[in-house]
Every structure is written in C-alpha cells, then in structure tokens.
Amino acid sequence: MEKSLARYIWKNTRLQQLWILAVVAASMVPYFLSFDLPKQIVNGPIQGDGFEGPGARQTFMHIAYDIPLIGHVEFFEGLQLNRFQMLMALSLVFLALVVLNGLFKFYINTYKGRLGERMLRRIRFELIDRVLRFPPIHFKRVKSAEIATMIKDEVEPMGGFTGDAFVSPALLGGQAITALVFIIVQNFWLGMIAAGIVGVQAIVIPRMRKRLLELGRQRQLTARELSGRVGEIVEGIGTIHGNDTSNLERADIASRLGRIFSIRYDLYQWKFLVKFINNFLAQVTPFLFYAIGGYLALQGRLDIGQLVAVISAYKDLPGPLKELIDWDQMRQDVQVKYQQVYEQFNVEPLIDSRIQELATAPVGPLTGAFVITNLTLSDDSGARIVDHVSVEIKPNETVAIVGPNGSGAEAFAEALGRMVWPDSGRITIDGRDLLELPESITGRRISYASADTFFFHGTLASNLLYGLKHAPMTDPIYDEREALEYKWHSAEAEKAGNPTLDLNSDWVDYKAAGASGPEDLLTAIRPVLDAVLISQDILDLALRSTVNTDVHVALGDHVVALRASLRDRLRDEGLDTIVVPFDFDAYNAQATVGENLLFGTMKRPLMTNRRLAAHPYFQQLFRETGLSTDLYAMGLEIAENAVELFHDLPPDHPFFQQLTFMTADDIPTYQALLQKLQSRRFEDATPEERSAIIRLSFAYIEPRHRFGLLSNELMDKIVSARKQFHEHIPADLAELIERYDAERFTPSASLMDNVLFGRIAYQQADASDRIRGIMGELFDALDLYDDVLSIGLEFDVGSGGKRLTMVQRQKLNLARALLKRSDYFIFNRPLSALDQRVQDQITRNIIEGLHEEGHRPAIIWVLSNARQAEMFDRILLFDRGGLAEAGNYPELSEKNGMFKELLS
Fold first, then answer.
1. What is the pTM (predicted TM-score) of this model?
2. SS3 string of 289-337?
3. Residue 316 has pLDDT above 60, yes or no
C-alpha cells in the first residue's frame, strides 16, 4: 500500500486533478472581476465620476489590446452609454459574474464529489481485496467487527478528501490571495492589516489544532475497539449467559463508554476554543477597516468606492481562509486515519494476486500425488503441532488419519486444505508447491470440510452451491434500458479500479456438479444430499414452507391428486383415522377453535389475528351469533383450569409445552384477571378484558388439552357461524382470507397443510413422522420430489447459518464440498456433532458414492473413531505432532502398537 494518502490520491487521480486545477485557475478571472466591479459602480454612475456634464456618456465594453509585433488591435469599439444606462449595464455585468462564479463552483464541487466517491469506492475495494489475500494466520489476530468498521466508516472521510486534496488549496487559496491582492491594490495599509490577521490565523490556528488531531485519533481508536467488543459480545452471547458474566460485560462497556465520553468532551472544549479564537480574529479585521479606512476616507486619502470595494472583498476573505484552515485540519485528520488503515492492512506476506486471478475455462484434473516433505506447523505461541512429517498420498487412494486430540492430525489436514501455511517443509502436487497453485485449481480440484462451518446469509441452495460459483458462466439477458445502465455501471467501476464482473450472470458451474444446466441440477444434487442424510431435513423445511405456485406450478396442479393418494395410502395401511380432513359442514376436533371458525388461512402480514378481531364485520358476527358470550365463558374455564394446574410449576416445566394458548409468564396475569372477573358478567368486563379471555378459546383443541369444554351444541354453533362468516364476507376481508377448498391449492397455507387438507390426530403416536415418510414416497411416485426439495432449498439459513442446527450445518458443509466432484477430498472431523452410528453411515455413503465406476478421487479423512479406518486403503496415525504409524487396517490392528490401543 502507498504510505502517504496524498501520493495515493495523486497516483490514481492525477489526470482528473490537473483538469480541475485548470478549471480552478480559469475561475479566478471572473472572481477577481467581481471584486473590482462594485468600485466601478459606486465611483462611476452612482457618484457621477466621468458624468459631470449634462448628457455625458462613457464607453462600455471597449475591447482593444496592444499585441507585440502586431500593434494595437481593436476587437470591439464599445457602446456609448449615459449615466443610467451605464449603471444598468455594470449591474447586469455584476449579475452575470455572480452567475458565472456560481456555475464554476457548481461544476467544481460536482466534479470533486464524483472524484471523491470514485476514490472511496476504489480504496474500499482495495482494502477488501487485501482482506481476501490476508495469510490465514492473520485472521486469528484481528476482530472482524474492527475490520468492517474501518472499511465502512473510517475510510469514509478519505473519499470526501480526495476531491479536496489538491483542488481546495488551489481554489480557496486562490480566492484568498485574489481578495488579499485586490485589497492591497486599493490601499497598501489596509492590505497589510488584512495580511497580518491572515498570517496569525494561518500560523496559530493549525498549531492549536494539533491537540484536536490527537483527540480525534484517540476517539477513533476507542470507537473501533468498542465496535470490536460489541461484536465479541454478540458472537459469545452463549458463553456470557452460561457463565453469568453479563454484568461483567456491562461494566466493561460502561468503562469504554466513559473513556469515549471523556475524549469527546475534551475534544468539544478544545474545538470550540479554537473556533472562538478564529472567529474573534476574523471579526477584528472589519473593525480595523471601518476605523482606519473611515479615517483615511475622511482625510481624502481613500475614496468611498475603494472603501466599499475593500470591505466587500474582505467579506469574501474569511470564508475561503477558514475553509482552507479546515482543509488543513481535515488533511491531517485523514492522514492519521489513513496511517492507521495502512498499519492494519499492510500485512505481509499477502497472497499473490495472480493466485486469485479469474479463470473461466475448465480446470483439468490433478493427476499427481500429494507429496508432503518435512512438514512443520506451529501454533500462535510458536509450539510445534506437526513436526517434520513426510508422506505421499496417491491420487486414487483413501487415507484415514487417526490420532488423539492434539496429536497434529487436524493441523496436518488443515495444511493439506491450505487453511494454514507451513513453517518449513513443502506440500507439492505434480512437483508444484501447493501454496503457489492458483485458487482456480485448488478451489475446484481440492475440497476441504471440517467441523467448523460458516454459511452466508441467504438461502440453503445459495450456500450449497457456493463452491461452484468460481466465475460467470453465462451472461444475463438485458433489455435496452438495462443494457445501457449496466454499461454505465461498468464504465464507472473501471474508472474506480473495480472489476467489471456482472453479479447478475449465472455463476454456477453446472458441469462441475455433473449437471448440464439448472434444469437437471437437482438430479445431480440429490444423491449428495442423500449421502449426507440431509434430504429428510430439507423435505421437512419444505413441508413447513408456503409455496409460490407461480414458480412451482406442478405442485399446485397436483395437490388434489396428492390429497387423494394420501387418503388411499392411509386407508390401505389402516391409518385412515390418523388424519381428520377438513369439512365445511363439520367441526374438525383436531383443529383449534379459531381454525374451525375461520376455515381458511390469512394472508400474512396483511392480515393478522388482532386485525381480524378488530374488524367490524367479525365483531358483528360474534354479537349476532352469541359466540362472544360462549367463547368468553369457555375462555374463563380455560384460564381457571390452567391457573389451577400450572401456577405452582416452575416456568421451565415441560408441561408448559402443552399450553398453546398461554405461556408461563401469562399465568400471574390471568390469575389476577380471574380474581377481578370472578363475579362479573360478560357485559361488565371491559373490551380489553373480554379480548384477553376470548383469545384463550381460539387456541383450544379438545383432544390435546382435554378440559371437556367443547359440547356438540357449541361445535354446531361454531360451524353455523363459519357458514354465515363466509356467506356474507365483505370484499376487503375476502381478499385477505383464503377459504379451504378440497379442489384447490391454498397458497397462504404450508405445503404440509395443503397435502393433508386436515389435521393429524393427537392420539396417534409418531403420527407426524409416519405422515412425512408417506408424503416423501408420494412425492417420488408423482415425480414431485425434486420440486418439493427445491422449496426446502429456498429456506433462509439466517446469519452464519444459525437457523439450522449444528448437525444440519455440518451435513450441509459436507454436501457443499462433495458437490465440487474434486480430485482430492480432505475431511477434517467434519461430523463431530453427529452420533457415531450416523457418522459411520455417512462415511460409508460418501466413500461408496464418490468411488463410482471410472471415477475414484482421493479421500483423506481425519476420523473421530479409529474403527472407521477399516473402510480406507491406508491409515496414518499421528501422535504428538509426528507420524507414529502407517499401514493398512489389517496390519495395524494386528500389530501391538498405538493403533491397536485406540481400537480397544
């Protein structure tokens, strides 16, 4: 990186800076003329200088020059104007100069702004580019929040300064010098007074501002450290709660905030002291001009026009001068910021940029062996974790690496996956050093997966296919307007030093996954998902999701057939009572009271339970049918039973999981409400109290809660109210509520609800698991499994994949590595969160799945259980950083060595 910000700016924008400096120089001409013109207006037409006689005239705009070797040349003889005409003409010229100066300022500021934004874009990209090239060990020493804060916030002022770096001193300095020279020309002594004040401001104020710069640097450092600390709290929130250290963190944050407050308060005091002195010096000069200039005018040594012109010129002097002093402070401030950025990002050794060059062409397979020679690895403290290990791993063999924790096996695998760099020794393939191979080779032909997983915020599919997005494979199709917009953005990116790669292109390398395009991608993905046993998880996510029938047309078209097939299958297996279907003329005992009353789903978030309850039509229906009093009485019974049964239980008791209508925190609230309503009728309760009680009845399910509150009469009354509700439903409600229809797909309901068209009976054990298994088979039979799977793949995994369980994350991480169909697969205890039986099954699935006929990639697997090594061709046993034993399973298991001890 360039150490000086000024040199960095000049290096990248010198042509633009030269152009704007030329514009600034040109703008000084009308700026000077605007100072001289008021004197001509006052002395000429206003005071009558040159218009002494009646009918006197003067020449306006006479343009003539004496040119060397040519002589006197007259371009325009001018116009003869009387006193009034001259006043109007000069005033119009003054107005024209004001407009011209304004246009110059507009162009210069606009150009500066665009130049600054380009430079900000350039420096942010370069910093992120450097982050992508940091050596792996450096990420253990920095906090991600601090790096993000520096790139987002701390370089922001550098972009604004870029446009001002050379233009502002030229423009502001030129304006100040122009005004000062004009004052000196009018009167030497007034000019010396102005120059003296300017000199004091130029010398004293920057010296005083050195303290401001130091305080600003301290403020920046403490703010960055606070950002990093907050990031640590967010990432370590589980540790904080688990160790009761939340108050320790509060004390730490309060201490940091106190330090920032102290710095900022000191900064404000010093800042406004400097401002006071600067303003005082600026206001002293007009006093001297009025006093001394007025005295000179009284003595006849200075005419009124000159005095007015001097005061007018000085009026424009403090502004540029103050801005010039501010510019100098900003220059020093951004240089301090840039120096800190330089120190943070000037990391050696960086990954060579050639290693990360874009490669759009297919990459050939790696045919050579992994040759590890005298490999030595150390941890951050300098302790050796792998010590002079030499081994060769052939392209087609499977190698199990075993050893106790801390044996060096994990670090050895990390070195093969290029996650860590050797202290000494070499890892080569085909005689080429692994660290010198382009990432276009290692990232496509070598796959690495460990127990540590990370997923970007996005869909499950985008994260699963992340390992296939190496380069844009096809260009997007743009219409004329979009093409012009893309062309403009590309040109701007190029000017800012950014790549012009189009993010809207299709980046997925389908051929690498064994597919010909997006149409058959799921066919290639599915065996991988089955191998790591995550297909059922994705299917469950799909069943709980709503379906966009515009995208998944087949599901919408086949939902009625699916419902019929499910009923037939359940009948054939004697499970026809496991699902109670929806019937518009009957009450569904397995559904809630609210679901029975609505007999449909709401289009959320446009319609919610609260909005529906507040709708006038819904309230009118309740009054006319008498359900208000019935459900109020039912709600009171529910509240009394719940309070009586659960008020003595701790909040974390598992019985509360059965209370869908009330939480542990609600128990005291309803206990107090029952005491208040004990002797009060429905009419005596307030609307809020009625709502709180009736709300309990909406979530009630008789077979689940078993309070015996639903009589046949009440169920018939609810069905009758349902019919009345849908018969006269107003248009605004009809648009937001989708009624259940046995012959139609319901987009606002989940896929499972659409297929079931009913509710699973709570009395049946393992009913949900059996239903999901049958549904999976039905989807397969109707060729809809891939479509359903694609719905599950649209699930948003959340920040860092935290909406998935640890088991799901490790399975997904392994599937992502397998999709690349590499030549070398390195698995570093990737399934540590799974039980041993499932680990064995997945390991066997992967080895059998990868070693198809004609394709046998190398598999290097650090195992958690030594018994799994029986599946591999060769075993490498690590102990205390060294290679203790090597051989195949029969040899080592019969030998009285360390491997046999691990098996026992």
1. 0.77
2. HHHHHHHHHHCCCCCHHHHHHHHHHHHCCHHHHHHHHHHHHHHHHHHHH
3. no
